[in-house]
Amino acid sequence: MKRRPDALAAARARSTGGASSGERSLRQQNLGVCSAPTIVGNRAYVVTNSCEILCLDVNGQANGNDGAYDEEGKFIAGDKNPPVSLEKTDGDIIWKYDLVDDLGVCPHDVAACSILVDGDILYCTSANGVNHEHSFCLRPDAPSFIALDARRGSCSRPTLKGSAPHVALPLVAADGPAW
């Protein structure tokens, strides 16, 4: 596997690695990461095509493994492959939040959400989607908009739920978050 010398290496490698068609079919289209990273200080936040939010160290493994997450070698290799040995040019995942496993969202095609970080709070749409025919939402009770603690990747605010998928970009007003 060719390695990439940037902080998003883990996210990019995961988006094309390892999964069979019977596993999370989100990777089946091999679209790669479809969301732009949000950079705040020495952290990069990105939504993978597998509907996970990653917090990455912009320095990668060059300054060691900084977060509690220590499975970068497995993440880079993919689900069905043995973990790779990490090098200083590999990505360093600080934390990972899985929107499918943790919140029950069911994205349609690919997760391409934008992330907004305001102070210690990360805001993001969930990519909850519709069926292939676009006739109904598969998981109407799943949240469409979430807020996480940007430092730890834990749910810090109630989520907004709706009966239909929502695509929106969070924004910050002068007196606080709005959507």
Salient structural properties:
single chain; alpha+beta; Thrombin, subunit H; 11% helix
Description:
The protein is α+β, with helices and mostly antiparallel strands and 179 residues long. It has helices at 9-16, 72-77, 99-103; strands at residues 38-40, 43-47, 52-57, 92-98, 115-118, 121-125, 143-149, 160-161, 171-173, 176-178. It has a four-stranded antiparallel beta sheet. It has a four-stranded antiparallel beta sheet with strand order 5-6-7-8, with no helix packed on it. A hairpin with a 2-residue loop joins strand 5 (115-118) and strand 6 (121-125).
Summary?
The chain has helices at residues 9-16, 72-77, 99-103; strands at residues 38-40, 43-47, 52-57, 92-98, 115-118, 121-125, 143-149, 160-161, 171-173, 176-178.
Helix/strand layout:
Elements: H1 9-16, E1 38-40, E2 43-47, E3 52-57, H2 72-77, E4 92-98, H3 99-103, E5 115-118, E6 121-125, E7 143-149, E8 160-161, E9 171-173, E10 176-178
Antiparallel strand pairs: 1-2, 2-3, 3-4, 5-6, 6-7, 7-8, 9-10
What is the CATH C-level name? Mainly Beta
Distance between the termini: 41 Å
Q: Tell me what portion of residues adopts beta-strand conformation.
A: 25-35%
Order of helices and strands: HEEEHEHEEEEEE
Mean pLDDT figure: 76
Number of strands: 10
Number of domains: 1
Please give the order of strands in the largest beta sheet. Answer: 1-2-3-4
**Which parts are unreliable, with pLDDT below 50 for 5 consecutive residues or more?**
1-23, 163-169
Helix content: 10-25%
Q: Structural class of the helix and strand makeup?
A: alpha+beta
CATH architecture: Beta Barrel
Could you say what the CATH topology is called? Thrombin, subunit H
Main beta sheet strand tally, sense and closure: 4 strands, antiparallel
Shape: globular
